[in-house]
Amino acid sequence: MFAFQTNPLNRHGDVRHTDDFITPIISSSDAYYLPVYQQSIACEVNDKHLAPLWLSYRQLHFKSQPPARKHLIYLGEVDSKHYFTYRLKSVDLLNHVTLDDQAPSIELCGLRELFKRLSPEEAHVCNVAIAIEHWHNTHQYCGYCGHKTYAAQAGFVRICSHAQCQQQHFPRTDSAVICAITYQDELLLGRQKSWPEKRYSVIAGFVEPGETLEQAVVREAYEETGLALSQVRYYQSQPWPFPQSLMVGFTAEAQSNQISLLDKELEDARWFSRTALKEAVETGELVLPFEYSISRKLINQWLIESV
Ligand SMILES: [Zn+2]
Fold it and tell me: Gene3D superfamilies this protein is in (predicted)?
């Protein structure tokens, strides 16, 4: 299991767009609201505690005004509790939520920072919250006619406000491929110049229009390393909300070990035996990707395979 794979939410996609379903839930005591602002999550903070700030409907009133329904996104139900995101238009609004007397202080936190403190179920809910909030923020205008769009259907559609257009826009996910490439008993790892120092990972890139996932793997591998691949096999996938990707994992075999950094996206790429990779990690010469990422899982999977 790795990050964001657990999915506890019943999203009620068949009824969430109906007033009959959503209106009674909004002000009920079973509804919880998570304020988010530009991919950051409102958190309650004290000396030992950092956790997402789930508010009741009563607490979500700003200056005694109820929350604007157009900023609510219905995430789904878990154990008879209903979860929403509230899209903050301004950070200042956090100063006006109605907390109890013993209230903690509130800060905005990124999901990367918060992730290790969350259960897999909470991480998934927060993932959905910031991914769809990002989509709303970046789809304020209609791509067909340029007029403003507005949120509808519990936050899962934006509709163009121009009477002659009214185009519906749906949340987008960017497909990316990520591949553990091997040659005999060695694994290929590369690094981009912009990454943290000594960080190496497997090869990845975005799928282009008209490609199959397997074709994207073959193209990315060639562009970044000059290698031709065979035996491209699907592994697993991982939602990756930084900001809105789905990482689709593969394994593949290189037809040679001659590396050529053709598109210069990587500043270095090398082959590692299992022994050499373990040593490089132990000595600190090399740093592997985030523990809960599919890239790390691909590397760990290869490390434990018998030769
Ligand atoms: Zn339009």
Answer: 3.90.79.20, Nucleoside Triphosphate Pyrophosphohydrolase
Q: Any idea which residue has 């060639």 for tokens?
A: 222
How does the average pLDDT of the chain come out, rounded?
A: 92
Nearest CA to 155 out of 102, 108, 85, 96 is that of 85
6 touches 122 (CB < 8 A): no
* Domains of the chain and any CATH numbers: 19-137 (3.90.79), 174-304 (3.90.79.10)
Ion ligand 1 residue ranges (Cβ < 5 Å):
142, 144-145, 160, 162, 165, 167
Q: Which of 297, 206, 295 is nearest to 243 (CA)?
A: 206
**What is the rounded distance in angstroms from the CA atom of residue 98 to the CA atom of residue 96?**
6
User: What confidence category does residue 306 fall into, taking pLDDT thresholds of 50, 70 and 90?
Assistant: low
Picking from 33, 130, 120, 133, the residue whose alpha carbon sits closest to that of residue 84 is: 33
Main-chain phi, psi angles of 85, to 5 degrees: -100, 145
Q: Cα of 153 to ligand 1 centre, how many Å?
A: 17
